[in-house]
Amino acid sequence: MPRRARLALLGVPLHLIQRGNNRQACFFADADYRLYLEWLAEHAGKTGCRIHAYALMTNHVHLLVSADRAEAPGALMKALGQRYVQYVNRVYRRSGTLWEGRFRSCPIQEEAYLLACQRYIELNPVRAGMVQHPAEYRWSSYRANGQGQDNAVIRPHALYVALGLDVVSRQAAYRELFRYELEPGLVDQIRRATNGNFALGCARFAADAAATLGRRVLSGKSGRPRKVAAPESQNLFVD
């Protein structure tokens, strides 16, 4: 069966997931995380992408990205992925692929889902049981978005900026969002949309996206039932 083409809409944010091949590790030391973030910032600038949130997990990466060109996120992931693989293969004296084929993604309806998806990304280490609070995890954007830590990667989205009239009130409002867990149904919805390369939004958003792209953007009802996801307690495998 041919692979489904990714949904790419001009100016619409994307949630991206890049997994290690066979869910194997893709980060092995602190230096790996640091270099990946350094190169993420560099290639985001070169391709015209804006990174609003990220979480680098042991065996996969989450990014929340927007750009003014529909093809820009793909160009970012290609350049970044190739450069990082070359580094890993050289440093750890290995060969072959590191990533699990193509990255997965979904376009996001900004008003209803963008901040929820941003929280989803930054809460990934908590769902994985690695930390109790997102601020405890070094390799996500929470400390930048929630606590004001300097971060060369992050470019705040307009909806985040609208949370407050100044930096202090904005960060306080953002931290307040983390007092409440994401509803399990919303977590599942984000996962299904991203893993299936479907639109994440209301019916009108999906209809507009389908009309623009000329094809279906939601999961169909035919076919085999979906497998039940692995329990979230298996920390490295949480998405």
pLDDT average, as an integer?
85
* Percent in strands: 5-15%
Overall number of domains: 1
What is the CATH class name? Answer: Alpha Beta
**Assembly level:** single chain
- The low-confidence parts are 221-237
Outline the biggest β-sheet: 4 strands, antiparallel
SSE topology:
Blueprint: E1 14-19, H1 30-47, E2 49-56, E3 60-67, H2 72-91, E4 104-107, H3 110-122, H4 124-127, H5 142-147, H6 158-161, H7 167-177, H8 184-196, H9 203-213
Antiparallel strand pairs: 1-3, 1-4, 2-3
Helix pairs in contact: 1-2
Question: What would you note in describing this structure?
Answer:
This protein has a single domain (14-212), classed as Transposase IS200-like (Alpha-Beta Plaits, 2-Layer Sandwich). The chain contains nine helices and four strands, in the order βαββαβααααααα. The protein has helices at 30-47, 72-91, 110-122, 124-127, 142-147, 158-161, 167-177, 184-196, 203-213, and strands at residues 14-19, 49-56, 60-67, 104-107. Strands 2-3-1-4 form a four-stranded antiparallel beta sheet. β2 and β3 form a beta hairpin. α1 (30-47) runs antiparallel to α2 (72-91). Residues 221-237 have low confidence and may be disordered.
